[in-house]
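[stage:ingest] chain + small molecule (magnesium ion)
[stage:ingest] validated
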Amino acid sequence: MAQAMVQVMVQVNAQSIFQNTAQSRAQGENNKAKGGVIVVGEALLDIFPSRTVVGGAPFNVACSMAALGADACLITRLGNDANGDLVRAGAARFGVGLNGLQTDAVRATGTVQVRVTATENHFSIADDQAWDYLDLQPALDAIEGQRAKFLYFGTLAQRSKQSRDTIRYLADRFGGQFGGRVYLDLNLREMPDIRAICKDSLALADILKVNEEELRTLLEWFGESSAAPLPWRSENFRAAVTALIKKFALTCLIVTRGAKGYAYFDVHGSLQIEGDAVKNVAVADTVGAGDSFSAMFLASQVQGLSLDESLARASELAAAICGINGAVPPSRDFYARWCPPEAGHASADDVKNAASQPERQTHG
Ligand SMILES: Nc1ncnc2c1ncn2[C@@H]1O[C@H](COP(=O)(O)OP(=O)(O)OP(=O)(O)O)[C@@H](O)[C@H]1O
Ligand SMILES: [Mg+2]
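[stage:predict] done
[stage:export] tokens:
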């Protein structure tokens, strides 16, 4: 009985919060230049053999978006510990909205052991961490009154039931009823029930971002044609992509293709935009290439830029991130060339802080 009441209260609050969001959007003073992104999921510490940095795809995306001048509200859960303080400080330094940072009294801030080889990054993700316990009501409180245009989520944070329920509630209500656009960056990792998690996540998404390999996995899992990999330009491939978009009622599909660039398929499955990656990048590592692509795409869309421009800028930032170690640069100065003047970038201070703050980056 008590549980049912709690559930009802949560729903009532959620309704008014999302209505507020929708009303503010409808009132929409200068909606083109304003409005932000709610980012929900994991923030954690990536432990490399030689260094430890703050990361997690949602954390990376929120930091890059904030540095690009977009309002980014990060909803995650941290331990009451020193690692949690590193995440809080990192998010603050990039201008990420902190209202959504929950503190768990019992579980530790998440950690991931990372092994980088010449060809791949390997992640060993600790179990039962603070980010597995995302609480719904504080998340709703944090986004109250936000004029968010997009909600970003991924699959990893859905490995536990509690975070999965919270994320799905937010995505469902944000997208379905109140007109925000739900952006899913799949970032497929091996974990139990991943196929079902993908299926349910795709059903909640408007915009799906995958890399080429992830797309092939989805076509194999959910496509109607043969499991054999289909050549990129073949008719069968196009038909399979169209079927995927229709099956999950996506409004579009963005496919990143590493050094081969990117593609944008519209609601009908037509290949509307295709772009090359930036050439001759001196790649330090490709960690976070997809995260920075998503961050720039969303920040540009929030700022009212065209699709073509949003994608081209996403590709530029992703290439620049490939040129440095890690997913997020040490200073916000790095983003200055893509920022509208009103974004108000601290420069000298950032550089000073960078020297005194722990190194950041991470796994995407
Ligand atoms: N070697 C490269 N040179 C130039 N640009 C690159 C390179 N690798 C990646 N990019 C850019 O980064 C974008 C995203 O890369 P990729 O397709 O590898 O994403 P991803 O697999 O989602 O990355 P992540 O590991 O962060 O999840 C590409 O579309 C491209 O614009
Ligand atoms: Mg990715």
